[in-house]
Batch of 4 targets.
Target 1
Amino acid sequence: KVQAAATRRLELKELPRRGWAAQAGRQAQLCSVVPWLLCAATRLCPAMTARTSGAALRCLVVGIIAIVAGLAEPGQAQMQKQNTTWIYPTLGCRANRAGESCYPFCTMPLNAPCEKQAVCAPAYVKTPFGKTIQWVMAASNPTPPDNVYIIRTGGMPADSGKSCCGFSPVLGEDIWTVQSPMKDATLNPYGVLAPEVINWPPMKLSDVANEFRTASVKGAVVSVNLAPEKLNITNVKFSWNVTRQEASTFAVTPLYNISFDARYGYSILDGAKRLYNNSACTKNVFFRICSNPFFTAQPTDSTVPLMGSPNPLGLVRSSGVPNSACGISVHTPCIRSPGYSESAAGSAVLQVFDVGMFDSSGANHGVRVGQQITLELTLTTLDEGGKVAMSTVDDPGLPIGAELTEDRVCGQYKICRTFTWTPRKGQEDKVHDAHVVGRSFTTLGAELNPCDELYTKETVFRVMVLKPLSTWLAPLNNVGQLTGDLAAWPGNAAVGTEFSVTLQCESNYQPRIDMDGGAARFSLLSTQDTGDGKRVSTYSFGYTPVRGDEGSTKTWQFHCGDDQDVAERLIRTVVVKTKLCTYTVDTGETLSTMTRRYQLSTNWLNVWNANPMLITDPDLDLMAGAQLRIGPVYSVKPGDTLDTIAAQFSTTIKKLLSVNPHLTPETAPDMQLLGATRLCVIACTSHPSPTYSYKWAY
């Protein structure tokens, strides 16, 4: 009686949570081998113990136990010869039929045995980034009521310490979180994974060699037994939340491999637990994560990646490092990252990247006419065995005059092209778009279930061409007299003294000043940045009147504008009129040398009298650069002729013409001169003394 009770307690302990139903099932197996009388006797044991003496009862129980123990080994051997079977909806349960392309998700009746050739072949499952992929592994055993244990036996490839695809580098949590609590350290009666045999995906190089190291995914994969009530069927559903492509750090996403075994377990009266699986194949599953092809480009205005490309650090505009090599401060265009989406005709969505010179606030100042733009475009796929190709969109294509080179390989699973464009006159103050699209495809065979052919969104590199804006900074107004009675204007220059003007032009292009007029000194002094995208060019103009320019008027026009002659140019006018009877003293000159150099009157006393403030001692050198008057200037009155003026001022017509070059030699002595005409009057040196009128003219 005691032995029977001990045996019963042992069986109850070894058949977790199955109670008498599990024990009855095992007895039913014994009944198929032991004569029914013995089974009946076994079932009648409790009744017999109530009516039989203690010694007889002990003999009967011992005999029955011996019979059961003797028959247990043949039952164990029989069970060892049985096979666990993969059943639907196990991944890759059956092959494609004619006209189908459903593998590895082809359908069958629930719990139907899988086609062995199909289910034993490696299953290639593809999934895009950012999606949740689910699959089922289901198996039945031949020895009810025992459980089937689906055990992961394989591992994922080393990833060189990088985190990808839903797996976090944080350690300490199981990658497959079990929904039901573990009831047994070795065997789980609910048919979920046995943790002591699982080789978790390595997250660090040190984890690659440690097959028992667990890596955290924070619930990335969850296993659920869908049929715990069926003792001989285990149906485990797996769910994997694949990371977004933007979070990937892989240059190429590797294949992820998981291997599964299905084994059944049972306990016999000796208390030992065993897993058996003689011929059910190990199921190898390869997960292929498929990417969308994406563009990268240079130069960009910051370290923030372009939208659509991996951004594992999660950089945004506020956290990116600006690129000091481009922008409005250095007059160099670049691409504004990360870009933005824009709705197009129909349901299409464009991926837009602005190109221009950006300031610190993000304002786009565009690019300039005549300024070459060079963008290096790269198209990449992360697909193992993938290839990419880039092309322009036929309509609208590229801006007029732009060029895009042919594809060239520039890395693993990458191609590059160079976009160049120099905007022309007439393209200013407009936005010009370059439309390109990328395509990824595979070089792998169909049996490997490669990633599908995919296209990027239509990608637009949008270039704004700047409208030139120029302005005069100096002089603010025209120089000299442009209107009124020019003949009455005394003038603003003297023979021998350079008349100079500083000119400054500001522009959001490269400023330039052009000069129209006679020979003169004109040169660029400097060009300076203002820091806001504008520049100021400073020029110097100078004209030195010579003997013979007295009384003449010369005009120059200066044009301020951009260096590409795009916008209408702004004009400043400089008028230089050389004064009469005024000459410039050269270094070391005296009254005597000056009168000889300019062929003037040798009567230095008259010159001294005309410049009382300038000449204190007629024998000393004059001050270099000083302007010296050598005679009076007479304003013509109505009726005046050269004859009358010469007589009035004790001079000759020849002398008048020599110091008044603005009078033409054809002027007849008796021709009446125009009113307001001004004449320099110098008395002839042979005249004994000037007339009263000559003295009065001073």
Target 2
Amino acid sequence: MLVVDMSTVPKKFVIKYATATVLLFTQPVNLRPFRAHCQMDKEQAQNIWKSLSSAVTEIYNKNASLLSFEELYRNAYNLVLHKHGDMLYEGVQDTVYTRLRSVAEQVAVCPDNQLLQEVCEQWKQHQVTMIMVRDILMYMDRTLGSVSSQLLHNQYLRYVPQNKKMAVYDLGLWAFRETIARHGQVRDRLRKLLLENIRDERLGRLIDHNCMKCALYMLSELGIDSSNVYEEEFEVYFLKETCQFYRSESHLFLSQNTCPDYLKKVESRICEEMQRVPNYLHANTRPKLRHIVETELISAHTPALIESKKSGFCDLLRQSEEKMADITRMYALCFQVPATLDLLRSALHEHVRAAGQLLLNDEMKDPVVLLRSLLALREKYDNVVRNAFRGENIAQKKVKEAFESVINADTRCASSLVAYIDELMRSGLKGAAEGEVECELEKVIIIFRYLHDKDVFEVLYKQYLAKRLLNQRSISSEAERQMLVKLKRECGYQYTTKLEGMITDIRFSRGAMEKYNTHRDEKKMNEVDVKTARAASCDIDVTMLTAGYWPIHPAIPCVVPDVAASASESFKNFYLKQHTGRKLTWLTSSGTAELKAIFSDVAKHELTVSTYQMCILILFNALDFGEELTMQSITDATKIPHNDLRRHLISLCTPKYRILLKRSKGKGFSSNDKLRVNNSFASKLRRVRVPLVAMKELSTHPNSSHSVPAAIEEDRRHLCEATVVRIMKARKQAQHNDLIAEVTRQLSQRFHPQPQFIKKCIESLLEREYLERNASDARLYVYLA
């Protein structure tokens, strides 16, 4: 066998063949004979080990600077290479154990106030020592105990796993754990000191974070051979101590302080505990520690914090404007424990519902004031959800459900909403900018969305809208149209068809009156007969109402004065010429008139009265001074219905507007009661508007009843039956539950029918043979054509 010395031969060419590698050189090659391998005997190995043992001792004595680590590494390498790895390993093990036993005795006698620091110092020194020893014995950790064919194939397996032994550094950890960390006089004392330090820090005292971190990280590193020393020796006891500490502290603090103070304390404690992890605890302790703290400080006391009458959650909600920060803090803490969030949301729902019910319990509250209170309540708790509850969907749904339960308790909120809109349209939006109008109407729509009885709202809104339009009391036609657009967007075009038709009638009437006035003025210039002159002496303003759109029931027209009758006839002739095929019916029960009244030489007024009052007062023009008329004679002359006549006469005899004087005393009227003109009537105003006294309205009036009016109930029944027939006509047959669900879905835009109500409608249709039950399945309905 030849060995080529490559150090003196320059490489030129390398030619590789299948069986050998041939080197070609341009200069002569110097060849040296192969030197046979010499095996190290046991005595040589012992001498090398002694030098290594002495070196380990010097490292422990902090004299490492005097050593040659290259030489030490070569010695350890030679021992392993010549199959003396077992002697090296066992020698290192004995040396480390011997040294640590003496250190353990030294640590064991330390007083408690020095034990933690001494353990940390010995641990740091041991770490440094073992790192140096590991570096010296790196080859032993890395390679096999004997050099075999693996070396030739560059397979560097570990000596330690090959012989089922620990690595050198792990050996040092295991030795430190068994001799010092679990020493009989160190183990329990060390744990006690660690727990006492943490308790002192919780009580506000300063502790040495460096020692704590060193000791706890020592325990975590000592967890080798599948033994978690940190958990067994410290974490279990620490978590138990934490649980007991916060259980006791939370009960005591909550009993002596308010809810906001407790929440601040909890927030501070959680931050302190979480900061304890990077300061000295192991990272794996964080989730366990957080769970215990949240359980003891939040979960255990959430019901008490909600129900507490002393500044509890409900009290904070009542003062949400000032206590928003506290509500936000409570939500943020409960958010960390999802199980408590349901309690918080349920409490919010109950509180909002109770607050709304409290507003409804005031029967005497004005409808407009009630609606404003509801809007303020909604805005208040909407801010709570948006700011404190971070706008979460579940909380929004809870508040919505609470308002729905309040607003749909009866029909009072529907009528109050209509009255509030009426107040806005009459005066509330006066001078408001476009953006402000939009904002106010959007608030109204939000309440409208909560309503289930939208048909009740429609009936009432139609009545109020009719009064505004006919009396010209709406301050903005644009606002009226915007409101209808929003209602159409919510409920569909059918919901607002009649309402839009009413506004269209008003617009059409204005155009028609302009044409009529132009026609009248032209005719006045050409005709001078008596009849035309009389008609021209009375100005008339007519509003054409489409039958079916307006909530006004036709009545038998009364007998109007000749002047008014002539003007009415003139307009009727003009209108029918313009629109053939139409029919006009005069509604004398509605409308107003302006009269010039001369009571004396100094008492001259312009009276604004109803059409019926005009007819009554004109009768007195034909009488002498002081002459009287009976109620019966007025009835015969005007043909005004008895109840309406009585109401209008009372209005003319009120103390404030006593235009007529009644001979008999008392508020009642009989057919024989006599009346005369009050010639001494006087008022500071030149224009006097005589209002009608209040009368008992229909059952749809806001303040008359909280139940659904009978007329609306009847309309609901017809609508429900029509919906059932429409569905069955399309499907031909349907199961009972499916039919109930579909009818409920289709009617929900107008009202929410109860299943029992739908069932009665189905029974009625069965009796009238619109439907029949299937012969084999009684719950299956079949449509009959």
Target 3
Amino acid sequence: TNGKAEESDDTQQQQNEYNEEPTANYINAVAGYNNAKPMKNGLLTGWCSWYHYYEHIDEETLADNFRVLHDWKCKITSNAAVVDDGYMTAWGDWNSMKRKQFPDKKKEMKKKTKEKRKQTQHDDDEGDDNNGGSGVMLLSSSSSKKEQDALKRVADTIRANGMKPGLWLAPFAADKNSQLAKDHPDWIIKNDLGRVANSSNCGKFFYGLDASNPQVLQHAYEAIRRAVQDWGYEVLKLDFLYAACLFGNGKHDLSLSRAQVMHNALRTVREAAGPDVFLIGCGCPLGTAVGYVDGMRISADTGPTWYPAFPLPSWDNATLPSLRGMIRNTLTRSSLGHRWWHNDPDCLLLGESTSFTEEEVTSAATVVAMTGGMMLLSDDLTKLNAGRLRIGMRIYPVTGATAIALDLHGANSETGFPSILRLWCTDVATSDTFVDGNNNQSEEEEEVADPNADAIEIAKLTTFSPDRPPQRPERRERSCIRVVWGLGTWSIVSLSNWNDYPAMVYAPKSALLIPSTEVIVSTNSSTKSASSALSTLGKEESKDGETIERKEIAVTPSNENDTIVCTTNEEKEHGYHVFSFWSSKYVWVPHKQNDDDDDDDECSFLLSKKLDPHESEIFHIKPVTPGRPQYIGSDMHFTCGFEVRAFHCDAAGTLDVHLKNDLKRAGYIFLYVPGCTNDIEVTVNGEAGQEVEVMAMTPQGGLKSVAHVGRVLKIWVVIHGMRSEEDGKVTVKF
């Protein structure tokens, strides 16, 4: 009876706790039923050719962008490059290349050899034979056979630049002028009137291929098999998949429902690609693809304008190409990510070839970063200016965590989609030897390492897995970013104004409060890796002999093996650090709005900001710890913590902050240090700090307090990406 009573109490507690993701259990149930494996093939970041070049691509232009991506590996980490539409002569004819854009190197070689022979005169037959023999030998060698397939050469170029090659296909679609449509008119889906079924695409009318026909499935199988086995592509973006099940009775097998046809089509696709190819579903019925794809486009196409551009109707901004439509769907479907698949919010456009304002670019970057899915650029990288590039750099690397849309079910009635996202960071159960960003790898290992390794490990801890019990959504594990020991626990809140006019945007108290996990983890090892330590969050005991105590308040750690998760009332009394990431502004706010407020248990201040049209800001809210130094944040990474690889302060008043130095970065970090004297010594990369500013003094208590407990420093840091001990190291003696 004791056990039953405890179970009943626990059940009652769960019922009383507000579930911020009411659909979480349903989504996990669907994932389990369909054997979803969202982490099977990793997480993609990189580049796609579509949104700058559209179908006007060629081999040389693609190679130029691949080289830029390789050169940027110390700025923006990429593990894939996707060749989109434009390489084939027609949809459906997937092995027909545009030879002008993707020339036949074998024919070119023959032509050049022939011209060389005409221009060169030989004095003897032996010389002629030798030269001729040399040309024939080159053409008949294995390398010439390798180079005659243009798409194989492109894949080899991507791989040579350190990324997985990706290719766009629409296996169940065909152009009206394609050879396939002429040869197989019986494969085309007809509507109930016997006419060609409507494909409903805003760009052009195309034919849907009847996936109830075994010959169509064989056609799709061969196209995908060719791309993977013959050309060597490891990522496939499969578009217009809905074309396999267009509405209409003019089909080969009327005994199959449209859902069954779609299921068979996707099963064929996965069997053809094999288990290790990363499949991106696009233009696909969502539920049907669970368990088959690794990534899924969950938004309408983005585009170079906020609203759909003429001649498209601007009022239809939910389904037609536009940045607004992309953002809306990314927010409302964020809960699917890392559960059914990795969400693909579509590409992030940074270039000036769009009509986006700086605020709109920053808002797109905010939504993509906070929702934690795939991240692909799609600009002419050779022309991307430094300012726009830095916006991208500030959200790389990805984190693997997914924010909660707090106003998903109470969104602004005028815009129709959420404006408040929340993540949180914690150092719970992590040590100061956090395994970071491949920092200790050799140059050879660096070339083949996955730049998203940390994000993948974090995502694995909270993603759907049939091998572990379901998570309790109220614990917020899914929206948690794990950081190194010493950084503490804090909230990250993004506010957005999706209106077409300036507006004041507010965040509720629930968005600002530090998650009340009330867990203290005492570890026996100071070398515990993040991936193993993080799994202890919210558990009563771990497999490694850790003891986890639940307490009403947290205490100052006695050594580096203790981690503070929540704060004492004493710390709350000293207010909060609030840091605005995009604008790099800091402000201290009191715990209570006025000194007459008797509520000591929760903060009473409100967070608000007037934002321009389509503007977003990311805020970091961290309780002040008056006697201990704190890392408030930086303008280098949106998490204000993921960029740190070690944080340590000794009893003598020396603070060492080690920033990750596998990437080149330059920017400001913001530190809180106790005390109010001017006797501060700062060194950066082993030399005296050149730009150090005391930008704020932290009050001791409430609004009327005139005494101060510490100050906030603003320090300029340049990280050279040298991976040395001093590179990215900041030391403050106070």
Target 4
Amino acid sequence: FFRIDFFFWFAMADLEAQIPALAAEVAKAGDTVKALKEAKASKAEIDAAVKELKRAKTAMDAITKAIAAQNANPFDANRDGLESLCKRRFFYRPAFEIYGGVAGFFTYGPPGCAVKNNLISLWRRHFVIEEGLFEIEDTNIMPHNVLKASGHVDRFNDFMVKDLKDEAAFFRADKLLEESMENIIKDPTATPEQKEEATKVAAQADGYSQTELGDILKKYNIKSPLTGNDLSDPYPFNLMFPTPIGPTGDLQGYLRPETAQGIFLNFKYCLEQNGGQMPFGMAQVGKAFRNEIAPRGGLIRQREFTQCEIEFFCKPVINEDGSIVTGGKGGKPHPKFDLVKDEVLTLFPSPQQLAAQSTIDMTVGEAVEKGIIANESLGYMVARTQSFLLRAGIKRKYLRFRQHLPTEMAHYACDCWDAEIMFSHGWVESVGVADRSAFDLNAHSTATGQELVAIEKLAKPIKKMVVSTKKVAAGLGKEFKADAKKVVEYFDGLSDSEKLALKAECKEAGSKTVEIDGKSFELLPKHTDFDEREETQHTVSYTPSVIEPSFGIDRILYAIFEHSYYEREDEAEEKVEEPKKDKKDKKKDAQKDQMERSVLNFPPEIAPVKCALLPLDMRVTRDARYEDMCRSLASSLSVMGISSRRDDSGVAIGRRYARGDELGIPFAITFDFETFEDKSITVRERDSCVQVRVPFDEAPQILSRLCDAQMSWDECRAQFPEQKQTASDKVGMKA
């Protein structure tokens, strides 16, 4: 899911067009210097030639640096600072770290766990509550037959290559190809034609077949990135973790690779709970497990991770004659589509990718109308996905929806869009929104013999000719014995027109031989003497198509970390003249200074702690009234579901503000000497550092409204008097 923006180079075409001429000029100047030295020319001539060579190189370097600056990832500069903060404040760390750790496993610390849980709670409010979904909790372990039917046993593979000389070195083939293409695209000396070809190859990297992938790796002479050794041909590697079930181990199971299958298995029961009404949606939040080949990139590629998945079961268009329309832009309508049709999305359709073109901005309604997004239900879920990500703290300019290419689309999918978020790893798939058609319900229905269908009452009953097999089925047992059931199932699998064709063929030829499960059966006219009768049909049954938004919570969370992190330009404390310090002390001071300037500007809804409770200084804590008021306020906040953190340490108030800022705490309440007299406190907002004076008794309600986005900070400032605080001013304003 790492995806570099391979289309940036169009913006640099003018700069890169100058590279060949400058390179030739540098080479010519270098040859001139070399020739003059060999000819033992005068010092003045050589110096002049060297000066010209330096000038040409300087011009070349300037263009190269300009290209590099335009290509710079805006999140690269802060990545080290963010990772230092996350480790220092224990947002997350490698699991089993005291034993050396294992790639692809991470442990969330208290603040990280809180942010993740708040993100999931926000997801539940945004989707489960607002969309009226049925949430279930299924098992983490699934038996073989379930995942065999879903296709995971046979097809849940990535292509892997290994170092031919180092048997411990394995790589995911398509990712190696993407990285190699990225290097070509970033190479200032590569021609526009080479860059365009690399762009197209990279865009299709995870859509190539096993043979195609092997041929392309050989074409570009791609070697092991660790050793430079040759690589094996690509071969499939199943990503599921197998586990035996029971003491004998005879029942094969797997850790589930996705949460979706549990939803499909319980479709019929939730349909019953919904009174048989369509459309409706189901949801599940939980762990999924994938034995990744070479997990890299921290939280964004794990072997154990959290998914939030929705399966929205669509109600098709049912015509007066009982026929069902599921295809085309009108085939899967959504009852609330009008609410989102005017929302603007940044789309990256497959034609634009294949032509190495850029993204397009378009409303959801226009995208569905033009057939760019397949149908209303898919468009609705894409729009709702965008509003959730923005609400959670993703920056709009770094979010796009990329359509799957035809070569990477699952065989059963009608259309699929990935929400890709830009951060220091490039464009990373974080949510997949797919039209899975009715594949999963049909697969499990076939495997179990259970009808997984919805039934709709027709607006007007219709008369229809029906071909019945009941009469002939009763007499098949005498002739076909134990195989009679197979023959009946064969008949039932035929459409009415196919049954009539088979009846006519047997009558005309006297018999017909058919193959069922690898065995031949001779059918006579009496075996196919099906009844034909007219019936009045009041209902129609169908297997619903499914729209699936699948959220990778850990990837989204890391993207929020990067989008939220910044460092203030101003320092938290005024500098005072101090004695000279050695290098070690200066390094400690630099780390301390960074700690005091780092900020995570999480939205209040997902912040790990909503409010810090602080005394102005230690003198305030010595007043007996402080303890009572602080405990009372903390209790009132907790009753309203607002978490708070108390910091009575003796350090300066500015430094305590900074401690909260780097944890992402959006608000700080300060008790000062006036608090005991006028029963008021100050509320400080993290990003603006502005403080307002608020009555003590009103503080819990105000904080609740701020944290639930029922009141903006600007509205709060307009309602209450602003209070200047020197310590707050020193913390600085957002850059």
